[in-house]
Amino acid sequence: MFLWRFPPAVCVLTVCLALDYRDDIDVNYGDIYYNEITENEKAEPTPSSAPCSSPDPSKWDKMFSMLENSQMRENMLLQYADDIVKVEMGSLRSEMLRFVAQYGGSCGAAVETAGRRIAVQLEGRLRETLDCLKLRDLTSAAGNSAGNSNHLEAMLQQLLSASRTHASRLAKLESSCLRSAGVGMGMNAKTGAVEQHDQQEKSREAAMDELLVALQGVRADLNEVIKSSRQRHLPAGCEMALFFPARSPHMHTVVMPEAPLSLSSFTICMWVKSTAVFNKTVLFSYGNRRNPYEIQLLLSQTSALFTVGGEAHLVEAQGAVQPGEWIHLCGTWSSEQGLATLWADGKRAASTPGVAEGHVLPDGGSLWLGQENSFSYNEVHNLKLAFAGKMTGVNVWDRVLLEEEISQLALREGKGCQQHGSKVAWGLTEMVPEGGAQFIF
C-alpha cells in the first residue's frame, strides 16, 4: 500500500521544488545585469578592418625569401649528391667483393685441390715405405742388415725427390694463380679444363667492364660533389665572409684600421666571388675629400682593374674574372719604383710602370668595401658601382709581398686566411657592414 503511493508523492515534490527554483531566478534576474543597453543608448561602431592584416611584403623581403629558398635548394642538392655517392660506393664495394669471391675462390680451390692431392701421394709413398721396412725386418737375417740399410736409403731418396717435385709444382701453381685468375687450372690437360678457363676469362672481362662503368659513374658524381662543395665552402681555410645580397647604393662595409694608412708601398689581397659584374664594380676603395680615388680595386665584366692615385693610373687584367666562382686578387704598388702590379689566383696578371712614382698615400681617409667611399659623388652613392656577392680574406700590408707569398695566399685548399696583414687584418681589424651587408659563417 505504501509502495503504491510513493511514486506520485515524489513527482509532486519535484514539481514544487522546480517551481520554487524558477521563482528565485525570476526575482534575481533583473538585479544581476547592470549593463543593459537601453533604447535611448546607441551602440558604438565597430571597426571594419581585419585585426590581423599585414602590409604587402617589400622587395627586400621578397629578395631575402628568394635567397633563403635558394640556400635550402642548395642544401637539398648537396644531400642528394651525398646519397648518390653513398649508393654508388656501396654498389662498387659489392662488385669488388663478388669479383674477389668468384676468382679468388677458384684459384684458392685449385691450390687446395693440388695440395690435397700432393698430401695423399706423399702419405701413400710413406705408407708403402713403412710396409716394406716392416716386411723386410721380419724376413731378413742378421747378415742382410747392410742391404736393408741401402734399400732404405734408396727409398728415402725417392721419397725426398717426389716431395721436392710436388713442392715445385705447387709453387708454380701458386705463382700462376697470382698472375691470372684461373690459370692454375691449366695444369689439367683435359679439354673441360680449357673450356672452364675460357668461361672464367669471359666472365672476368664482363665483370671488369661493369666495374669500369661503375667507376666512371662514381668519378662523375664525385666531380659534381667536389665542384658543388667548392662553390659552397669558403676558400683558403676562411671561416667567415662578407655577404652582399644584392646591388644597392646603401650597401657597403666600413673598415676601421687601427693605424693611419700613410703608405709609400702596399699590398692589397682578397678572395672575391661576384654574383654579377657590370661595367664597373667597386671591391676596395680608399680616399679622402681631396682625392677619393687614392686606391681602388674594381671589376669590369671579366676584367680586374687596379688604380693608385687616380683613374689615370690604371692596371687591367683581362679575362681574369669568372662570375659565380671564387678568385684571389692582389694589388701591389711601390712609390720608389712606381710599379703597380695586379695578381689573379697567385699569378702576375698585369703590371704597369710609372704609376704615382714618389707619391705617398695620405692618412685620414676612409676605407670601404663593396662601394665607392662617401667622399665621391657628393656623398651620394652610385647603384651602378655596387658589389653583389661574397668577399673574404681582405688584408693590407705596408710592403710589397714576394711572389712566393702571394702564391701561398692564393691556394684554394691552403691556409691563406690565417695570414694577417700589417695594416688591415682579416678577422682582427674592425669592419662594420651597413645597408644590408652582413657576415656569414
Structural overview:
The protein is of the alpha+beta class and 441 residues long. It folds into 2 domains: 70-139 and 149-216; 241-440, Jelly Rolls (Sandwich). The chain is 44% helix and 19% strand. The chain is built from 5 helices and 14 strands. A 7-stranded antiparallel β-sheet has the order 10-9-8-3-12-1-14. Strands 7-6-5-4-11-2-13 form a 7-stranded antiparallel β-sheet, with no helix packed on it. Strand 4 (281-287) and strand 5 (295-300) form a beta hairpin. Helix 2 packs antiparallel against helix 3 (145-179). The chain starts with a helix and ends with a strand. The model is unreliable at 1-6, 9-19, 21-30, 140-146 and 181-190 (pLDDT under 50).
At CATH level 3, the topology of the largest domain is Jelly Rolls
What is the number of helical segments per DSSP (H or I, 4+ residues)?
5
* Biggest sheet overview: 7 strands, antiparallel
Distance between the termini: 95 Å
Radius of gyration: 46 Å
Unreliable stretches? 1-6, 9-19, 21-30, 140-146, 181-190
CATH class of the largest domain: Mainly Beta
CATH architecture term of the largest domain = Sandwich
Share in β-strands:
15-25%
Give, in order, the helices and strands. HHHHEEEEEEEEEEEEHEE
SSE diagram, text form:
Layout: H1 2-32, H2 59-139, H3 145-179, H4 191-232, E1 241-244, E2 252-256, E3 265-274, E4 281-287, E5 295-300, E6 303-308, E7 314-317, E8 327-334, E9 339-344, E10 347-352, E11 366-369, E12 389-397, H5 403-409, E13 430-434, E14 438-440
